[in-house]
Structure formats: structure tokens, C-alpha cells
Design a protein that fits this description.
Strand order of the largest sheet: 5-4-1-7-6-8-9-10-11-13-12
Structural class: alpha/beta
Strand content: 15-25%
Amino acid sequence: MDLITSAVVAAIEHGAPGHAPEAVASHYQRLKLAIAKFDAAAAILPAIAALEAEPGNTQLQLALSAALATAKVPDDMQTLFAAQGLLDALQRPPSPLPEVEAAPAPADKSAVVSNYAVVKVYFATDRQRDLGKPPAQRFSSERSLTGGNGGNDGPLSYGSCDVSIPRDHRMGQLESPSLWRLEFREDPAKHVVLLDATVLDHDNFFAALKTQVRASAGKSAFIFIHGYNVTFEDAARRTGQMAYDLGFDGAPVFYSWPSRGEIAAYTVDENNIEWSTPHITAFLADFLANTEAAQVYLIGHSMGNRGLARAVAELMGAQPLLAQKITEIILTAPDIDAAIFKHDIAPKLAGARHPVTLYASSQDLALAASKAVHGYPRAGDSGAGMLIVAGVETIDATGVDTSFMKHAYFAEKRSALSDMFYLIRNNARADERFLDPVDTVAGRYWTFKP
């Protein structure tokens, strides 16, 4: 049963719509309003009404789930979040009645609510730092040659960032100032902005991470390793946007290696990700050993997958018990030689708890450019070069809307985000999500439903 149907059924079992606690009734109504915007609402809302009349009818539950799937409602992040909010309300104990009369609430609640949210994300980086500069420029595109935080931290610096998410944020978007809209400076009410970057020493960094991990329902964390042509600022902004859009309640973490943040600097970035890979490996081992996270999701993008995949492969061989703490490995648009990945890297990842998830696209222009430079297919290619390997669930993201250079589709399109939502929230495998299987002589891969 999908998340939305599960939320509807659970709410009805708890008395919705007319006899549920106020918080549950409010979230239930919010979910129905989210569904009402769909063209197929005329079929879906009567299916919900039928369930309200016969709560235990399994056939009606299946009919609702089928109607939702046909209308592609499970691909809509707003509806997913409404369903998750309803489930969260169902799990919370009812608030005790106050012993004295409460003061009346303000007539206009928006007057006391900020027009943007702030997401705290954590980072490790081997970029050169300059604490005298603003947050967006605090870590440069140069390699760290000054010993990071000093002491025994080697080239790494640690810390946390505050990232603003505007209240009218569109799922999957990384809102930025636009000259077309005559926007000449960042505004947290309109844009995803890196507000602050605070440097912490090793011990305080991991103490803060432990606190956030322990506070999450699943004791969870994700680590994002960005790709080519990404600054520290944009890595922080992207991590905050992903955490917000995925409704992630654990600790969002990113590792920022010294990408130059320039389109023309591809070969420099190649050298720098190779230089950073031992640092990524050491950080990942440190993280797994010191955070007490029970669910750890690793997300790599583009060239960053080279460091991530090799770090995990090394840990699988050198510290297999530690590597078993990794819940999911998600490779998006991996800019890795396809033959090297298939024969050298994928077999070493076979010991992972779950199959690796790989998003590929034949429309990824940056991967096409990489193939032109190297002369051989990349692991993120689809089409005739689709990589199908044992232990890897390959998903063809061709046709999914992408951002600049069609290279950030993993975080720019609602369907890709919703697929990751089900993977992370439900630990659902590809054949349990809203994907279509495609069987070939080489094996099976999946595509997004049309």
C-alpha cells in the first residue's frame, strides 16, 4: 500500500473525518485538499468517501491506491508531505487539556510566522578556508593546505550551515536571484540562501551530529557528495533544499571537495576529486564510527560519485562491519567510466545491505561531454549504454526535467525526488516504488512511469 493510501486508511480508523482528534482531522483535511487539485480528483475523492463509509473494506483500499497511481498523485511532493504530516499526527499522543484557560491566539498567525524556514546542515570539507570572509566565500575552490581545523584533523574542516528555504518554495527548485525578475541580491524570503557557516572542531562537530541523530525518529543521517562545477555555497544550498524537500528529520550532511565551480575546469575537478578521495574515505569511516546513526544514506552526484563509490568500496574491503551501517547507496548521474564501474567498483559494493540505486539519463549533457573527453561510456549513461549490473538497481531518468546542462535531475524534478522519498522513507526497492520495469537480455532496469 502506498504512503497516501496508508495515511487515509489510518486516519479513518482513528475517526476521520468527523470523530478524530483535532490535529488528525486538520491534517486529514489538508491531505484531501492537496488531492483535490488533481484533474482525477472526481474519481479519487469518492473513493475516499467510500472508504469512510466502509473503513475495513480491503477492495476499496486497493481501489483508492489504484486511482491515486493512475493520477500520478504519489509523484507529487506536496501531497506526499501532507500524507506524512497526517501519519506523524497520528503517532503523536493527544495534548493534555490545559488546567487554565489559554490566551486567545493572534487573529493573523502569519504576522508571527517567518516568511522562510531555516534548515541546519552539517559539513566536512577539504577546501581552503578563510574565516574572515562572508559565509558564501568562507571555503574557496583551492585545496586545504593549512591543516583544516588544526590539531589532528588533517586537511578537513568541520561545521554547520544555516540555509533558508522560502515559504513559497517549489519542490526540487534551488531558487536564486534572477536578472529577468530584476532581483539583484539574495532574499531569504524568495531564495535558497546560505545564511551562515560555523566552523567546529572535530569533537564538537560529532557531538552536534549525535544530538541531531538521536533526536530523529529513525536515528538517521544522509551524506551528500556533490559533483563537478559546484561551489561550497551551492553544495550547502543544495543539501538544505534536499533535506527540506525530502522531509528528512535526521542529520543532513554534505562533504564538499574543492571543485572549482567553473564549467571550463573539468580536468582540474577530476584531479581534485582524486586528491579528495582518501579524505572522503577517512571521513566516512569516522562518521560511521562516531555518530550512532542507525540509518545512513549516501547520495553522490556526478563526479562526486567517484570519491563516494571508491570510499565505500574501500570500506567494504577493509572494515566490512563498519560498512554494514550504510543503509542505502544512491548514485545520481555517476561520471565514472562504465567499464571500470562494472568490473572494478560494483563487485566491491556487492556486500552492501541493499542494492545500490543508480539514476541514469541519455539526455545528461555533462555526461555526454565527459564521454567526449574520455572516449568511453559513463556509468550514468542510459539508452544503448545502460549499465545493468548485479547488485545495482538502475533507473532511467531520461525525460525527467533537468536544470543547467541537464545534469542535476536528481534534485530538480518532483518525480525523481518522490522516488528518493519512497526509497529513504520506506526503504522500498525499485519494484516496490512507482516505476515501470524493463526487462532486457542483460537484465532488468526501471523507468519513471509516463
